[in-house]
Amino acid sequence: MIRIKLIGIIVVLFSTLGFLVYGEVTTRVDKAAMKDVESQLNRARTTVLLRRSLLDHAILERAETIAQTPKIAALLAAKPTPPGSEGDEIQDAPSIEDFAYKIHQDVYEEVLVWNARLKAQEQTFRRPDSLAHLAAGAPDFLAVVNREGQGVAESKDAARYGKTADYGKSFPAILSSIKTGQAVKDVWTLRGGPMAVSVAPIRSTAGVSLGAVIVGYNLAVAAAKSAQQYAQADVAYHIGGRTAGSSSLPARVEAGFDSALKTQLKAAKTDRGMFDVDLGTDKYKVSWTTLNNYASKGTTIAVLVNCSAALRDVKRGLLIIPMIIIIIAFLAGIGIILVFSKYDAQFRSLDKGVLEIINGGLDYWFEVEGTGVASKMAQNLNIMVCQLSGRPLPEEDGEVHTQHWASDNLFVDSIDPGQIKEHETVDTSIIDTGQMATMSKEMASLIRDDEETYLKNVYQRYLDALRGAGQPADNIPYPGFVEQLTSHANRLKTEIGCKRVRFLVEIEAGKATLKPVPLD
Question: How far apart are CA 201 and CA 183, in angstroms?
């Protein structure tokens, strides 16, 4: 019962301590993880803004390159010949509408040429210091407008269905660029989605404003996913008062994010900020920045990091802590069982000895190894039994030892080899003669038996002799008996100069003794 209680106490102790450590470590790791998330957000925001800036410059460079095309400028500068002019046939003179369509076709062909060039991405069309390659592939919108901002040709409008499109009215930045002669960057909602555009003015060689080139690339999910690869975080664009595209936010939570971002933008006093928002079952940390380098306002880039996922990844590694706690508690339980098993065996041995003495075996001797409680108890029991039975106690240097005092009889140091005369050496060659019949049974066995049989016989005869002499015969280990007997036999063999020395068991003066017998 005590073992079970002790194991329970240790398990509870280890579990409590372990969970306290786990809780403290988890808290510290959570704080460190959140700091890492904020640092990651700052790096991601910087990366996204830098890449956005480079892409915008690349789009602007393309627009400026196309705007410098002489043929497009010449086509926009051309004018129809009025009917009735000298040298012209009135019936053959084109109408203003036909002339405009002819200009559209020519400009459209030139636009297609540039579109194909940009799609092919040939190195010959880039300056050595060009950033145009960052905006890869053909643009999603490529158009030429006249000085009034009206569409002349678009890369995806072969039949000039958009001839009445008044881009200048919808996007005043076009007219501003044509008027000032300065290229501009902007974000429009065009073709049903957000688009990053650049407007580059077209001027004649005399510096007269003729129109402008518009180059645009979509800012939808694909662009957000492209930014995500560089930022290592989710990216979303908020354009025109709504979230127009995100890299990986599920549709079911994008509305919640859009609402939270609008609230932050409405209350913001600066062009950037950071906030937390719950989207579905996960918590996100968001860093947003409103871009002020566009012709129109209202474009915001938001970078998001899933804090819940980051913490899950971190805590998954911390699961090793409770596992280690469980293993330690399990090993501690096994250790307790083993320790108690060892002590149980010692106390069971003491209990067996007490029962033996109760049943009349007063010659029983308690032997327990070690210096623990059981060993001291065995020593005290031996002293008690000796005092009750009147047996002398074995003493050495004034200390009582638990070694069985009968084992002192194993030593034959008192035998003087000089008293064993040479003629007393027994010739083992008589084993095949009639002289064996004149010997005692014990002597004949001593000569005839092999080593293993001899050792077993002498051990048993010695125990019998001890019991016959009234001496304690318990707890004399066979291996120890053989070891000491062999050691003394080897010493005597060297001193006497014979081949072997064996021992006869005899009783002298009421005590069992071992008498050495030299054999040649």
Answer: 6
